[in-house]
Amino acid sequence: MEPFFDFDEIRPFHDEELPEVIRSIAREKGFEHAVRCIIPDIDYAEFCQLMYSCRTKKEFQIKLALPLLYKLIQVSSSGIDGSGFDKISTDGNYTYMSNHRDIVLDASFLNVMLHENRFDTCEVAIGDNLLIYDWIANLVRVNKSVIVNRNVPVRKMLEVSKRLSNYIRYTIQEKHQSLWIAQREGRAKDSDDRTQESMIKMFNLGGTGTLKENIMSLNIVPVSISYEYDPCDYLKAQEFQQKRDNPDFKKTPHDDLLNMEKGILGYKGHIHFALSEPINEQIAALSDDLDKTDTITRITHIIDRAIHSNYMIYTGNYVAYDLLYGNNRFTDRYSEEEKAFFNNYVQGQIDKITDLPDKDEVFLRHKILEMYSNPLKNKLIATGQPL
Question: Taking CA atoms, which of 70, 170, 191, 214 is between 20 and 30 Å from 201?
């Protein structure tokens, strides 16, 4: 069945399109720089020959993307693992919907975990605001990404949203391919992860049934992403102050590029991906007497509760919570040495902010502590524990 919408502008490249696109990417100095940042001693000419040998997207991922990601995990983390893969089937097609921590790596690392657990890698929905250069846009489309158009005129927003909704549905139901999408546009910079209702509204646009039927047909699996450390935490804190001091402040493409680079190369500590069960049964149990607005709200709450319940909580999260709220509730979860280490870590991140006028260290520290305490706070609420 041919799709009703023309997806050529947003879809991953077809395999027959790869040879020409891959050669254009390999010629880009920016791409070479990015590869050398991850593997400084690489023989780039040999690497390019390996790229040219790839005839399918799957081959590209197996030969190049996954080995690069494993190298990145080795140099920028203490390890990655996952849970919940026994809750889904290798024969199923799912919409993986997760919280969003890192601009580039959230979906990339999910694909590492899917591959390790014998699942096919998923397509990835990525905002076009991050595709600063043409070679980046080409690279992500070689690597099974679908482009989400963000900065479009209001009069075109409905058309663009319908096309994306139809593409997701086409991917799940016709191509029998899973897809990842963040629960909201952009990252929750304070780590207070909430599913945007507009995401559920967009999912519904491509369906022909009831709201509940349309959402259930996408087979949503909430995914909880937990990084022990966020290498961009100080950049996010800096942005909070910039927006506080200037409500009209907007990041530049250079800022986005810096966030991507720091997120990719910076130290993340331990990384965990936790998959929940598909939420179809919970959606089916919602009362048919609810109006559309209430149904959408309930669905976002189901997704949020699943994501919040499955965070992995690290020592730094417990320390940050106690420091932020001025209590000793979780002192049994860390030692004085670990508390001192985390305090020093936070100060070290604040010290990296060197070009901020009227730098407010008290405010910056508060924002970083919020980032690390909010996952714990939300997990306590989701699991019925007192704050």
Answer: 191
d(CA 114, CA 117): 5
Q: How far is CA 133 from CA 128, 129, 364, 375, in A?
A: 10, 10, 31, 33
Phi then psi for 213, rounded to 5 degrees?
-65, -40
Helix (H) or strand (E) holding 167: helix 154-173
Residue whose token pair is 């909201």: 184
Order the strands of the 95-98 sheet from edge to edge: 79-83, 270-275, 220-227, 95-98, 179-182, 123-127, 145-148
Query: pLDDT tens digits, the chain, 387 residues: what are they?
Result: 344 568 999 999 999 999 999 999 999 999 999 899 888 999 999 999 999 999 999 999 999 999 999 999 999 999 999 999 999 999 999 999 999 999 889 999 999 999 999 999 999 999 998 888 999 999 999 999 999 998 888 889 999 999 999 999 999 999 999 999 999 988 899 999 999 999 999 999 999 999 999 999 999 999 999 999 999 999 999 999 999 999 999 988 888 888 989 999 999 999 999 999 999 999 999 999 999 999 999 999 999 999 999 999 999 999 999 999 999 999 999 999 999 999 999 999 999 999 999 999 999 999 999 999 999 999 999 999 998
Q: What does 312-331 look like in DSSP terms, one character per residue? A: PPPHHHHHHHHHHHT--TTG
Count how many residues are written for the chain.
387
Contacts of residue 205, Cβ cutoff 8 Å, sequence gap at least 6 = 158, 161, 162, 165, 166
